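Hi again,

Forgot to attach this to my earlier email, sorry! This is the prediction with adenosine-5'-triphosphate bound. I've pasted everything inline since the attachment limit keeps bouncing my files.
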Amino acid sequence: MGDTSKLLMDHYESEHWREVQQDVGILGNSEKIRQLIETIEQVAPTDISVLISGESGTGKELIARAVHKRSRRRDQPLITVNCGAIPDGILESELFGHEKGSFTGAAGQRKGYFELAHKGSIFLDEIGELPLSIQVKLLRVLEEREFMRVGGTTLQSVDIRFIAATNRNLEEDVHKGHFRQDLYYRLNAIHIKAPSLRERREDIVVLAKKFAADFCRNNLIEFQGFTDGAFHLMEEYSWPGNVRELRNLVEKVIVLERGQRIDDRILSKYINTFDDHRNLPVPLDKPKDELERELLLRVLLEIKSEIAQLRELVMMGVPQRYSLKPWGGEAPNQYAHAPDGQANAATPESVSEMEKEMIKATLIKTGGNKRKAAKVLGLSERTLYRKINKYGLRDNES
Ligand SMILES: Nc1ncnc2c1ncn2[C@@H]1O[C@H](COP(=O)(O)OP(=O)(O)OP(=O)(O)O)[C@@H](O)[C@H]1O
Ligand SMILES: [Mg+2]
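Structure tokens for the complex follow:
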């Protein structure tokens, strides 16, 4: 072993490193995770803006909290704003606050998130969802640390640190004109990329063991553990939902299998490896015709799974009234507890009626989780909120 790698080994095994890693709460021993924590340690003590990107469930929020926690602002507030979830109409006043009487219903003066974050940090999650009109105003806050409340005439000054996150490709959004280039450059001063779980498979077992241990301790469950075969299966899987999916899976199998030892056979009931064919590497060492057959098979599998998804959507969105009855006359479960009990309502007459029904059904299926519903429907969260308002799908209905 060379001197440098020996030094690095010592560094990552030192008491100090363990303390840092525990404080930030980011698990994993892979090179990618070590580099990530090193970057957080470098940038956190300064006021430089940080943009965090990465797939869903990779720990972007965890990283944002870590940046705040390892900064000199750690005892001041960290205000988290989900930019995609706030309806357009109130976004500006939520962010910048408003003066009394600035619009109908503005009974009193109200501080916005920027003011609430004064001396601390503001975490703008899903920043790619901000409309262009707000992006201009945000740029000004970033540059001057100054803004005006809605309906206000005096400038407010704030001392804040900006942390933003996105699972979109913002550069692409800039090209398409959906995201301001100047704002992108400003936010992008430091860009932290949260690695997907697929890129650091060596962390999977560490994470699974920790999630299992935490879950069993918190819920007083006795768990017999995973076999090597089960861990192997986890390492092979592609984890499109990343760490969140892994955590959910671990907790689910422990509960549903009542703490018994989990081997690969049991685990395979829960991991959808069949849908995982898209992520298999293409073996380039095979003869051409064999390779072609394999690729063809994959395309067929892909089409099959898309048909299955489509069928699911149709079953969700077009209930019995279309007399498809693919479930043999019995309404599927989600309709059994449809709160409005309208399984026999009139046939939807228009596209928007169908859209409304589809949104309603998806919200029921996702247990009212708008974020998940937006993903299933292929809409942005903001658009979904707009449509929920448009169709009057209040929370108790969804
Ligand atoms: N490296 C990690 N160590 C421990 N837990 C992690 C790690 N990465 C993610 N998690 C956990 O996984 C879950 C999802 O993380 P988080 O909410 O930060 O993801 P995200 O990237 O913000 O996802 P989304 O894009 O869907 O908002 C959380 O429970 C988080 O604590
Ligand atoms: Mg997040």
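Residues 318-347 have pLDDT under 50 and may be disordered. The pocket of magnesium ion (ligand 2) is lined by residues 60-61, 125 (CB under 6 Å).

That should be everything now.

G.
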